Fold this sequence. Notes:
The protein is mostly helical. It contains eight helices and four strands; from the N terminus they run H-H-H-E-E-H-H-H-E-H-H-E.
Amino acid sequence: MHIPESLQDLADSEAVQFLKRPKTITRIFAGVFSLIVFSSLLTDGYQNKTESSKLHCVLNGNNVACSFTVGAGLLAFFSCLTFLALDAHESRIGSTRFKTAFQLLDFILAVLWIGIWFVGFCFLANQWQHSPPKGFLLGSSSAKAAITFAFFSIFTWIFQAYLALQDLRNDTPVPYKRSLDEGGVVLTTLSPPSATSPVNTPTTGPNNLSYAGSASSPYLTTPKAPRLAMMPDN
């Protein structure tokens, strides 16, 4: 099947490649789950009992449970939107320190949301377990949806924390390593003068008065022993 050129260009565009990233997909799922959690309790989470017109939370009548869930879901939803916007401009960030700080903040917030959703799921499940079976006419489906997607959010943020940790490991700059021979001392052996060296070659001639003394001098006839010289490294 032949794909038109325009569709091929669309598939290779930066927007499509950005949406195909695992981090982007995970943020979208986390945002959708958070939206379901707070919207379900915000719309049908407060109901009145049969004998009263006052609104109560469907989770055992505990308004703290509904308020906590709505607040956590709303903050998590805006957190996902904010980091999606930052991810879209991540390639334009030139500062390495700012990029590392952004990835570290992403990891810390992901771990924080794991704890929040775990506590929230346990709290909601406990309140729903102690709720009277027919205390409210409506709202049971909304409470079940909030509990279910709060549970799914735990694994979503776990995977998000894993991706943030991988980015930190891959993008951390390697510290400067000094070479082993840096600042070392070079040992150089001075070779003895050769037999053909001008120093050991006696000068012959009738006009050379120092010939006998030079020939018998131990400094010229005896080769010097090798020496080790300490030369500073440039």
